[in-house]
Design goal:
- This protein is an alpha+beta fold.
- It has a domain of about 60 residues.
- The protein is built from two helices and four strands, in the order βββαβα.
- It has a four-stranded antiparallel beta sheet with strand order 3-2-1-4, with no helix packed on it.
- The longest helix has 7 residues.
- The protein is globular and about 30 Å long.
- The termini are far apart.
- It binds zinc ion.
- Zinc ion (ZN) binds next to α2.
């Protein structure tokens, strides 16, 4: 049986076109981290401090499990130093 989840640390964030927060995982995939109560309660994502606190925390990446292609990770990372990530997808 296959390992059913792959844990990947959050390395940054951006917002999507609908203003939802998207975590950028170290593996190169993106994952929505919506705060959409009562279904999805992530009040931390709505605050700058909360997001900073969650940097490095590991989330399950289903895309890794599926072998999905890497996501586009915009450079827009207001919570971090504006370092260029070495990872660029095209
Ligand atoms: Zn992944």
């Amino acid at each position: 049986m296959r390992q059913s989840h792959m844990l990947q640390p959050i390395c940054g964030y951006h917002r999507d076109a609908e203003d939802h927060w998207v975590a950028q995982l170290a593996c190169g995939h993106n994952q929505h981290v919506r705060h959409d109560p009562p279904w999805q309660n992530r009040p931390w994502v709505t605050t700058h401090e909360g997001r900073l606190h969650m940097l490095g925390v590991e989330l399950e990446c289903k895309k890794c499990d599926e072998g999905a292609p890497l996501d586009y990770q915009p450079d827009h990372q207001p919570d971090q130093q504006p370092d260029k990530l070495p990872r660029e997808t095209d």
